[in-house]
Amino acid sequence: MRNGVPNLGALQAFEATARLGSFSRAAEELSLTHSAVYRQVTGLEERLGVQLLTRVRRRVALTDAGAEYAARVRHHLEQLEKDTFGLISRAALGRSLHIAVLPTLATTWLLPRLADFQSRHGDISVSLSARTLPFQFKDHPFDAAIYHADRPWPQTAGIKLFDEGELLPVCVPELLGSDGDAKATLAGLPHLHMLSRPDAWRFWYEAQGWEYLPSISAGPRYELFTMTLAAVHAGLGVALIPRFLAQDELDAGRLVMPAQGVLKVKEAYFFSYPMAGEQSDALLAFEAWLAGLSLPGREAE
Questions:
Q1: What is the C-alpha to C-alpha distance for residues 193 and 212, in angstroms, rounded to an integer?
Q2: Three-class secondary structure of residue 91 per DSSP
């Protein structure tokens, strides 16, 4: 340690182990061996004179002191990452942006369009990291975020990209009943749920004036829309999917709506960045490019 500051490698090893709950998983993330991560963390505990982790078979658990220290270390590592990106963005060789995104929206909507931005702004490098939960910009190394909410985050500036519009019940054609009774067909299908929207099916049934049975809640749950769509395509059940994600699949006949009712959604997708401070030319260029795109919600306006 120099002036009481632990070795950066030891802090990274501890933070990864604390977050992932395993020396092996931390080693895989850091491209190190299990023993190297174990030595780093054990050495950190010895130097600090504080037990940070308890070992239970192949799993590790944080002590109270370890949990508090892990949160502080994570904050400082992310700030260091943010400072590094900021330095790169100001360098003469090029400019960069680090944007937090929703995984499904990034893979299905943003990434296919990024080549156009790159052709217009070849000197700006755009890096993306997945985030599914709200966060404070001051605590994370991001210049901006694309997220789903009913209004922009507090103390941010930016633009609304598009309204989500509505959620549609979709499944593969093979799961449709032959009698044309939508209610009976749905009753016989597993209902797939999104972890971030646990009440979506309940609201959908209420919107149709249909009874929501407790058995509907028993279906599997997925974290991302990409997972949910993959489960739908695998014939695992019926799911509520935003129209802008499902429409091409419906038009091609790969998916069908077992019932025609939809669930209107008030939330939208936003692009925001901290209101405080001066925005970089790269950030403003990216915002202007997003504002000029043909977006699903705007086509209906």
A1: 14
A2: coil
- Look-up: residue for tokens 């960045």? 273
Distance CA 101, CA 108 (A): 12
Cβ-in-10-Å burial (0-12, 13-18, 19+) of 129 comes to middle
Summarize pLDDT for 65-84 with one digit per residue, the tens.
Answer: 999 999 999 888 888 887 77
Spatial contact of 208 and 236, defined as CB atoms under 8 Å apart: no
Q: Distance between CA atoms of 279 and 147, rounded to whole angstroms?
A: 19
Rg (CA), the chain: 23
Residue 285 in tokens:
């260029």
C-alpha pair distances (Å), 161 with each of 24, 149, 151, 158, 263: 40, 11, 12, 9, 20
Choose among 129, 162, 100: nearest CA to 294.
Answer: 162
Q: How many CB atoms lie within 10 A of CB 79?
A: 14
Backbone angles phi, psi at 159, to 5 degrees: -140, 155
Neighbours of 286 (CB within 10 A): 22
Position 45 pLDDT exceeds 60:
yes
What are the φ/ψ torsions at residue 179 (nearest 5 degrees)?
Answer: -90, -5
Could you tell me the pLDDT band of residue 173, with boundaries at 50, 70 and 90?
A: very high
Residue 201 and residue 192 in contact, taking contact as beta carbons nearer than 8 Å: no
Query: Does the reported pTM lie above 0.70?
Result: no
